[in-house]
Amino acid sequence: MIEVSHLSRFYGNHRAVDDVSFTIASNTIVGFLGLNGAGKTTTLKVIAGLLPPSAGTVRVDGEDLADAPESFRKRIGFLPETPPLYREQTVSEFLRFVGRLRGMSSSAVEARLPTVIQRCQLHGREDWVIDQLSHGYRKRVGIAQAIIHQPKLVILDEPISGLDPVQIVEMRKVIRGLGQECTVLVSSHILSEIEQTCDRILVLQRGKLVFVGTGEELRGRKSGATILSLTVSGTREAARAALDDQPGVKVLDVQDAGDGRLDLRLELAEDNREAVVDLLVRSSLGLRRLEEEGDELEDIFVALTKSASATGGAR
Amino acid sequence: MNAVLLLAGRELRTYFNTTWGWIVLASVLLFDGLFFNVFGLTERPRYSAEVLEDFFFYTSGTVMIGGLFLTMRLLAEERQTGTLVLLESAPISAAQVVAGKFLGAWGFMLVILACTSYMPALIFVNGKVSMAQVAVGYLGVALASGTTIAIGTFASALARNQLLAVVLGGAFTLVIVICWFLSRFTEAPLSDVLAYVALWDKHFQPFMRGRLNTENLVYFGSVSFAFLLAATRALQARRWQ
Question: Can you give the pTM of this predicted structure?
Fold first, then answer.
C-alpha cells in the first residue's frame, strides 16, 4: 500500500506540487497523467526519495520516507525519463552492479537475473554492450534496473517517450507484467497510453490532483453539451432554414463539401440527436454521416485540465 | 563498506575500459619519462639521491595534474549523462558514493605510479640509492596525488560538466600550491598560516629527500579528508538524506 498524504513541494516561491493526497493498493498499475510542467516528475522524485517534500508524508507499507530515506529506497525502483545506464557495460554486468548497489548479495542477484531478463523481454541481449542497444531496449534495461532488487513500488517516468509503435506495444506488455509482482506508478502525458496500461488514473494539473479514478470514470466527466458532426446533401439555405431557431440546437459551422453536400457542426444542449435526424429528414436534407465529437478521452483530459486551471481547484 | 568497494571497483574498471583512462595514464608516463630523460639523466656527474629527488619532483607535478584530469569525470560526468540518479536512488549514503569514487580514481593513480617505477629502477641499476628514499618518495607522491584527487572529487561534485570540474579543481589546487609564494609577501602570523597550508613546498619536499614525519602525513590526510567531506556535503545538498 502506497500512501501519499498532503504532499507539497516548493522550488523557491513556486509551488510545484500542491497538497496532493492519494493511496495506491498493492500490485496495481497507476497512471500519473498531466501536461508538461504539471508537476508529475517532481511528485515522482519525492515519492522515489530523491527530493525532500516541503510538506506531507509518503509511506510504503506503513514505512515513512522521512523516517529512514535509505532503507526506504530499497523498497522503490525508479526509472527517469532518460534511462540511467552505464553504456560501456553489458546488460548483465550493469544489472549485477545495480543489484549489488541496492544491497543484494551476489547469489541473490544471480538468482534474480533470469526473472528480470524474462520480465523485461531482454532475452538474447544479456551480453550486449548497452551502447549498442536500440532506444527501446535501453528503456527495457532501464526498467530492469528499477526492478532488479524486487521493490514494492516501481516508478516509471514517461517510459514510452521516444519509442516507435512496435516498441510501445512491447513496452505495454512489460509494464502490465510488472503489475504481477509490484505496484507500478507510470507517468505520461499521453492519456490513451495510460488508459490501455493502467488500472487507475491520477490527473495532475499545476501541481494539484484534479482527478482520481478509472478511464471509464474519466469518460463520465465529459462536458454537458453534445457536439455533432454531420454531412448532408442539400443547400446551405435549406440547412439554415431547418436548423436555425430550433430550441437547444446551435449551428457552429457550415462548410461546402462539394457534390451538393455540406459538412455541419452542431452543438446540442441535450443529446437529442434522434430529434435532429428527424428534423433533417423532414426538411429534405439527405443525411449521409453523423458522429459525435468531443468524446475522445484526450478531449476530456484537455477540458479537465483547462477547467482545473481556470478554477484553480482540485477535485 | 561493500558499496564503497563496489563503486571503487567499477570506477577502476571504467578507467581501464575507456579511452580517457588510457590517455591520462599515457600522458603522465610520457611527460614523466621526458622530464626524467632531459633533466635527470644528464652528462654531468650527480649523486643518485639527487637524481631520485628530481624524479619525485617531476612525478609529483605530473600525477597532481593527471589526478585532476582523472577526477573531472567522477561525479560531473554522472550528472551530465543522467546516471547520478542511479546512485542517488540507491540505499547508500553520499559519503559512500564519494569514498567509492575517490578510492577508484586513487587506485588508478597508484597503478600509474607503479608504471613509473622503471625510472627509480634505472637509477638503482646505475647508481646507489636508498630504498627508504624510494619508498618515502613514492609515499609522498601517492599522498600528494590523493590530495589532488580529493580536491578534484570536490570540484566534480560541484560542477555541472567535466570541463568546469577540471577548471575548478585546477583553481583550488593552484591556490593551495601557491600559498608558499604568497607567504613570502605577507607578515606573520598570516605568512605562517600560508606557509603551512602550502601543499607542495612545505609538505611534499621532505618526502623527495626521503624524510618522513608525522606532521606531513597528518597534513595530507586532513586536507584530503576535508575536501572529501566537502564533496559529500555538496552531493547531499542535491539529494535528500
Answer: 0.80
